[in-house]
Amino acid sequence: MDLSDRKKKILRAVVENYINTAEPVGSKTIAKETDMGLSSATIRNEMAELTRLGILEQPHTSAGRVPSPLGYRIYVNELMREYRLSVEEAQEINNALRQRIAQLDEIISEVGNVLSELTNYPAYALSKPAHKQTIVRFDFIYVDANTVIVVAMLDNNTVKSKLMYFPTGIDEPLLKKLSNVFNSTFTGLTEDEIDSALISAAERGANDPNGIVSAIAGFAINILSEITPAKAYLSGTSHILDHPEYRDVDKAKELLSYLSNDEELLKLPEPAREDGMRIIIGPENLAEQLRESSVIVASYDLGNEMHGLLGVVGPTRMDYAKIAARLEYITKGLKRIFSGGNKHPPHIEEPSK
To answer: Looking at the chain, which residues constitute the CATH 1.10.10.10 domain(s)?
Structure first.
């Protein structure tokens, strides 16, 4: 949306004032607290136009305005000033990380606690496979009339094998047929994609009435299910009640119930890049329980085919610039920890004054 510079300045002033006060913002407040050199009447007219465009909203009969989800989106995309952490804030984050993180396997959960305390919002920390792994190749080694070694190579170049015994017998021509069937049908599939319909079709293709295909497919499923599972950690849910947007008990309860479900947390959107950040505002969230909340999430590489996600959930009125800066600072520290392979957080360079 193409807005004039004046409208953008007024929108920025409304958003930042509302973030700080949680109260609707009037034209007199903008005129008094900014140096735009505009009269209250001029600002009021511009705010009315921004309201007509759906960028601002007028709650109830109040003379003040609040940002709409569209207004927040324009602010985040175009108007948000870069928030620079102070030396004190950087020291606070460093100290919190050093005190809380003693072992590498505690980082994922503990860093969520740190983030929640620093932002006064619920925070979540996830670890999950960078992608769902698949098998790229099957090999079958004939041992005797009843025994075969099944070898599977995964897309991360690891190899799994199993000695399998078939009482009904298996000969080399059948083994060749099985190799063709499995390498053409079962490679490139995730665990979820190897289903009963696929197995039945493969049994018909291999002319196998004895369950040999099913047994080997079960081996493939077991391999893929052994991949390190995703984990979710939630911290600071009580902070929700600190914000006026959640004074409605039913509204707060609905959000807390949603956030307490690990399966739902694992479905939350991720940044487009592995080392990126994403801001999802209000109705941009697909989950109905988050349609009046915003999510800021950043990702980082955990190594070993895993990546981490660290996010904050709060009202659309949250201070996007400050939280994004803190989130970025923490994830940079985590990247150094995991890339260096040490168990204690390294010194994170503090911003100069």
So the answer is: 5-79
* pLDDT of 163 over the 90 cut: yes
Q: What are the tens digits of pLDDT across the range 85-103? A: 888 888 888 777 666 554 5
Q: Is it true that domain 87-131+229-340 has CATH number 3.30.450.40?
A: yes
Closest CA to 313 of 329, 331, 297: 297
Under 8 Å between Cβ of 50 and 71: yes
Q: Which residues in the chain are classed under CATH 3.30.450.40?
A: 87-131+229-340
Report the distance separating Cα 340 and Cα 89, nearest Å: 24
Question: Which one of 3.30.390, 1.10.3470, 3.80.10, 3.30.2010 gives the CATH number of domain 135-225?
Answer: 3.30.390
Average pLDDT across the chain, whole number: 86
d(CA 221, CA 170): 22
Axis crossing angle, helix 107-119 with helix 320-340, rounded to the nearest 10: 160
Higher pLDDT: 273 or 3? It is: 3
Q: Which residues of 304-324 are buried (b: 16+ CB within 10 A; e: fewer)?
A: ebbbbbbbbbbbbbbbbbbbb
Answer with the residue of higher pLDDT: 24 or 132. Answer: 24
What is 5-79's CATH number?
A: 1.10.10.10
User: What is the pTM assigned to this prediction?
Assistant: 0.70
